[in-house]
Write a structure and sequence with these properties.
Structural class: mainly beta
Largest sheet: 5 strands, mixed
Number of strands: 11
Strand content: 25-35%
CATH superfamily: Cupredoxins -  blue copper proteins
Distance between the termini: 18 Å
Bound molecules: copper (II) ion
Order of helices and strands: EEEEEEEEEEHHE
Number of domains: 1
C-alpha cells in the first residue's frame, strides 16, 4: 500500500496476485493512509466483485507504516478490492485464487435488482483501467504497479 510524498499517486503493489486456495494474504501500509476493502454491497454499497460465497473484508484505516491486515482466501475465483480514500484515484487491486479465466472477472457494469442496491453497478474509470487481466495475473503470478512517473 504505497503513496508518493504528496499523495498524488497511490497504489497497491503488487496490483495483481495469484494464490492457491487457502492462502493468507497480508497487506502492509508503507506510506499514507489506506484500506483494503473488498468490492461487495456490504462495503458502502459497492458492486459485488468477489466470488459468490466468499467472505468480504474491510481492513479499516491502516494509519501507521507497518500496519497490516490479513485475509485468508478459500473460495476460488477473482477478488477485486479497493482503498476507501483512494478508489477514485485508481487504487484498486485484483487477486486470482486458484485456476480461473478472464470470464471469472465480473463485468464492470451489470444490473443489480436487490432491494437497496437496485441499479447499474459503477466502478470509477481510474479503477477500471488499473485491474490487470486475469490472464496476465495467471501468467505472471505477481503483477507489479507501473514504475513511478508513467
Ligand atoms: Cu489508499
Amino acid at each position: 500500500m504505497r503513496s508518493d510524498l504528496l499523495g498524488t499517486r497511490v497504489w497497491f503493489d503488487p496490483v495483481g496476485l495469484y494464490v492457491e486456495p487457502g492462502t493468507t494474504v497480508r497487506w502492509v501500509a508503507r506510506e499514507n493512509v489506506h484500506t483494503t476493502t473488498a468490492y461487495t454491497p456490504r462495503n458502502a454499497n459497492h458492486p459485488l466483485r468477489i466470488p459468490e460465497g466468499a467472505v468480504p473484508w474491510d481492513s479499516g484505516f491502516l494509519v501507521h507504516p507497518g500496519d497490516h491486515f490479513d485475509v485468508t482466501l478459500t473460495v476460488p475465483g477473482v477478488y477485486d478490492y479497493y482503498c476507501m480514500p483512494h478508489e477514485a484515484a485508481g487504487m484498486v487491486g485484483r487477486i486470482v485464487v486458484g485456476r480461473s479465466n478472464d470470464s471469472a472477472a465480473r463485468p464492470f457494469d451489470y444490473w443489480v435488482g436487490q432491494p437497496g442496491t437496485t441499479g447499474w453497478t459503477h466502478v470509477p474509470e481510474a479503477a477500471r483501467t488499473t485491474f490487470p487481466t486475469v490472464a496476465r495475473i495467471l501468467s505472471e503470478r505477481r503483477v507489479h504497479a507501473p514504475e513511478m512517473g508513467k
